[in-house]
């Protein structure tokens, strides 16, 4: 799932080299912390947060197929 977030975010941004995803295992969920170049932050969040919501929806669907829970945090 980390690779999925990395690929999706990489397709959205201009500076692909600055995309970093850290996975933190919690009790019943995995938290994915997404870091991008500050200039690309708006592309990842989207107008009104729509892109960020779509990323979270895709990640949630992939996690549920594996019987897990996933959370996406976009760090600035």
Based on the model shown, name its key terms:
single chain; alpha+beta; GMP Synthetase, Chain A, domain 3; 3 helices; globular
Fourth-tier CATH superfamily name: K homology (KH) domain
**Proportion of residues in β-strands:** 15-25%
Q: How many domains make up the coordinates?
A: 1
Report the principal-axis shape: globular
The biggest sheet, with number of strands, parallel, antiparallel or mixed sense and barrel status, is: 3 strands, mixed
Q: Which structural class should the secondary elements be placed in?
A: alpha+beta
Query: Care to count the β-strands?
Result: 3
Tell me the series of helices and strands, N- to C-terminal. HEEHHE
Distance between termini? 21 Å
Mean pLDDT: 95
The helix content, as a percent range, equals: 40-55%
Assembly type of the chains comes to: single chain
* Rg (C-alpha, Å): 12 Å
The CATH architecture classification is 2-Layer Sandwich
Q: Strand order of the main beta sheet, please?
A: 1-2-3
Residue ranges: pLDDT <50 for 5 or more in a row? none
The count of helical stretches stands at 3
Might you state the CATH topology name? GMP Synthetase, Chain A, domain 3
């Amino acid at each position: 799932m980390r690779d999925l977030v990395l690929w999706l975010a990489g397709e959205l941004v201009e500076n692909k080299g600055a995309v970093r995803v850290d996975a933190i295992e919690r009790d019943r969920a995995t938290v994915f912390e997404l870091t991008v170049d500050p200039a690309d932050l708006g592309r990842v969040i989207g107008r009104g947060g729509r892109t960020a919501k779509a990323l979270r929806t895709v990640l949630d669907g992939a996690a549920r197929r594996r019987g897990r829970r996933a959370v996406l945090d976009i760090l600035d």
